[in-house]
From TrEMBL:
Family matches, as PANTHER family: SEC14P-LIKE PHOSPHATIDYLINOSITOL TRANSFER FAMILY PROTEIN (PTHR47556)
Organism: Aquilegia coerulea
Protein name in UniProt: CRAL-TRIO domain-containing protein
SUPFAM superfamilies, sorted: CRAL/TRIO domain (SSF52087), CRAL/TRIO N-terminal domain (SSF46938)
CDD domains the UniProt entry points to: SEC14
UniProt cross-references to Gene3D superfamilies, sorted A to Z: CRAL-TRIO lipid binding domain
Signal peptide residue numbers: none
A UniProt-annotated Pfam family: CRAL_TRIO
Length: 266
């Protein structure tokens, strides 16, 4: 029965598969970017000069973009995109300008706890109150509580962006990465959501570069494998961030007894 269910899942998901090239999702104005190989960052002699170069080019070519926090003159944000683009000014400007436009169109600055009382109440995704052993904020998704056929996909996407923002605020001096944990115990066909998985990785790649440190798929059942086989090729080298593991591994390698998430205590 498990094999038959997995086969049905594979067929249904394959129908929704799209090419991972740059495109606009008309329903949410999201830009989906093609993944490229992650390369080693080459630190320049004077990154401050490059930051100023990016600021000047953004002011000249994209003067309508907002300024301030997460705007075209935010030097911390500029540095993240320079690192991601191996300190190529032109490439950083191109990617950063799209990210700032996305933040405007998606209304990221307007997302709040009040906006997501209902969806947060389901317990399907949240930020863990403690950091992991590597000092990373932890975003937990409980897959068995996610029912895409009954929910608004745009609300789910905005909730995801809100949680990413919330996690990043827990980082000291905005330095560091996020650990994502998908609790796949009890996962079934009705919980499968290829679009959301693609959205999450696209968002991290396009708009929060180098902020996702690792993703744990915990106790993945056999029926989850067809979904993973479809999404894995889209991630290219980013698939290396994913680790399939057990609850016991989470307990022993990622948390102390005091900081372990409640859902992994039993």
């Amino acid at each position: 029965m498990a094999a038959a269910a997995a086969l049905r899942l594979s067929h249904s998901l394959r129908n929704s598969l799209f090419a991972p090239t740059l495109r606009t999702n008309k329903s949410s104005n999201l830009l989906f970017c093609k993944f490229s190989t992650v390369n080693k960052i080459l630190q320049p002699n004077d990154p401050n000069k490059l930051i100023l170069d990016v600021k000047e080019k953004l002011e000249k070519d994209h003067h309508r973009l907002p300024v301030g926090k997460n705007g075209r003159d935010d030097e911390d944000m500029i540095l993240w995109f320079l690192k991601d683009r191996k300190f190529d000014v032109e490439a950083a400007v191109a990617k950063l300008s799209k990210a700032i436009k996305w933040r405007q169109e998606f209304g990221v600055s307007e997302l709040s706890e009040e906006s997501f009382k209902r969806i947060a109440g389901t317990g399907k995704a949240y930020i863990h109150e403690n950091l992991d052993v590597n000092g990373r904020p932890v975003l937990i998704v409980v897959a068995s509580k996610h029912f895409p056929a009954k929910e608004d996909p745009i609300e789910n996407q905005k909730f995801c962006a809100f949680l990413i923002e919330k996690a990043l605020k827990r980082l000291p001096n905005e330095e560091g990465e996020i650990l994502g944990i998908f609790d796949l115990r009890g996962f079934g066909i009705e919980n499968a959501d290829l679009e959301f998985l693609k959205f999450m990785f696209d968002v991290f790649y396009c708009y929060y570069p180098r902020r996702l440190g690792q993703v744990l798929y915990v106790d993945a059942p056999f029926v989850f494998q067809p979904l993973w086989q479809l999404v894995k090729p889209l991630l290219k080298s980013y698939a290396s961030l994913v680790r399939f593991c057990s609850v016991d591994t989470v307990r022993k390698e990622y948390f102390t007894e005091a900081t372990l998430p409640t859902i992994f205590r039993d």
